[in-house]
């Protein structure tokens, strides 16, 4: 893990002030190009989704007359529909729910009312992701996104014999990632252990169950039935498209948080946390992915995870240009700016999952780095 220099309280304040200035300058420049960008994404989601569903229908009907052609068409339909779902989930839904486009005054792009195309509700995501994760990024015992309650991926997490099965658990989480998002807010282990009353648990679960019913009805009942006797290829196409979206989302999110250079922090590091301290924790706890414009768009610009964690409510299409200055600021203050190719970053994630399925001790370097942030803030 590359070393980041320890900052004095004065340096920490100056570090925060420079990032605040970048944030303010970017916010002041928001305008038509940002509105045009997100509306192009809306159209791309709509038309690739329509195209994917039409091609899947044609492929299903074609199985009776041209089986070879229909297989190729089915694959194209899955890719189109999967791309639509990925774009809607990552570049549209995730970013809109963060309130990145509230300034436009468009009710269809309002962060408090937008409902996205997965089984989890936007309301629950606003709590678990926007508030808990982005406030307490990588703070052990406060950020439930560390391992999603299933995986031990940092040595500071307690090892249990069940961790030996986590390579399988990780694969299942990847395949069914939208379901992990759906149940995360309900803290099922608390209910299982009797810490949450059953009546309260199911009352909170009710909106999620309604959302699940709508999503399953749309993808696995309504559209397959429209194909009549050819419903099965359409159903399987929808299943495959959702699977592609789950795998891609899992990959991007895990690459953004759980690479070898990403750090976790003790609760003491956020006692009396300053603005500069919060910014520093976001930089040290996040990882970027190098890959070009297509990767940026298809990842919802979470290829710039560092910038997203620094400025979660600014339009994500600005992250690439902001990242140039963020990197300069980090260099001036001796802070490691963690970035790498998708294969490199995901390889590190896979290694973490495999390595920490076995007992391991917290590294003294990692503990010292986390404690240093608290010390600089006078915690």
From TrEMBL:
One Pfam family per UniProt: FA_desaturase
Keyword terms, alphabetized: Membrane, Transmembrane, Transmembrane helix
Entry's transmembrane regions: 54-81, 162-181, 220-241
Protein name: Acyl-CoA desaturase
Fatty acid desaturase domain ranges (all copies): 72-339
Lineage: superkingdom: Bacteria
InterPro entries documented for this protein: FA_desaturase_dom, Fatty_acid_desaturase
């Amino acid at each position: 893990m590359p070393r980041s220099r320890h900052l004095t309280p004065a340096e920490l304040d100056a570090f925060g002030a420079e990032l605040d200035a970048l944030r303010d300058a970017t916010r002041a420049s928001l305008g038509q190009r940002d509105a045009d960008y997100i509306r192009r994404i809306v159209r791309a989601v709509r038309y690739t989704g329509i195209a994917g569903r039409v091609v899947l229908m044609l492929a299903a009907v074609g199985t009776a007359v041209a089986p070879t052609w229909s297989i190729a068409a089915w694959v194209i339909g899955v890719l189109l529909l999967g791309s639509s779902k990925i774009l809607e989930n990552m570049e549209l839904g995730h970013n809109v729910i963060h309130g990145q486009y509230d300034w436009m005054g468009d009710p269809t792009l309002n962060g408090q009312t937008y409902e996205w195309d997965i089984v989890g509700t936007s309301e629950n995501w606003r709590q678990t992701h926007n508030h808990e994760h982005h406030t307490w990024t990588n703070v052990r015992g406060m950020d439930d996104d560390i391992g999603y309650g299933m995986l031990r991926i940092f040595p500071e997490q307690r090892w249990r014999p069940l961790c030996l099965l986590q390579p399988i658990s990780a694969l299942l989480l990847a395949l069914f990632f939208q379901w992990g998002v759906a149940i995360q807010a309900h803290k099922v282990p608390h209910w299982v252990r009797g810490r949450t009353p059953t009546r309260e648990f199911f009352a909170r679960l009710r909106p999620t169950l309604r959302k699940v019913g709508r999503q399953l009805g749309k993808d696995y009942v309504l559209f397959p039935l429209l194909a009549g006797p050819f419903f099965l290829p359409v159903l399987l196409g929808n299943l495959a498209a959702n699977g592609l979206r789950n795998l891609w989302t899992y990959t991007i999110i895990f690459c953004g948080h759980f690479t070898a250079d990403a750090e976790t922090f003790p609760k003491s590091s956020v006692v009396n946390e300053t603005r500069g301290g919060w910014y520093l924790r976001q930089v040290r706890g996040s990882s970027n992915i190098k890959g070009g414009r297509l990767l940026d768009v298809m990842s919802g610009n979470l290829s710039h995870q560092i910038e997203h964690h620094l400025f979660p409510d600014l339009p994500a299409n600005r992250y690439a240009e902001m990242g140039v200055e963020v990197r300069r600021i980090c260099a001036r203050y001796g802070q490691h700016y963690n970035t790498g190719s998708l294969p490199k970053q995901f390889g590190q994630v896979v290694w973490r999952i495999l390595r920490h399925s076995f007992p391991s001790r917290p590294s003294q370097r990692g503990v010292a780095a986390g404690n240093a942030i608290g010390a600089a803030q006078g915690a």
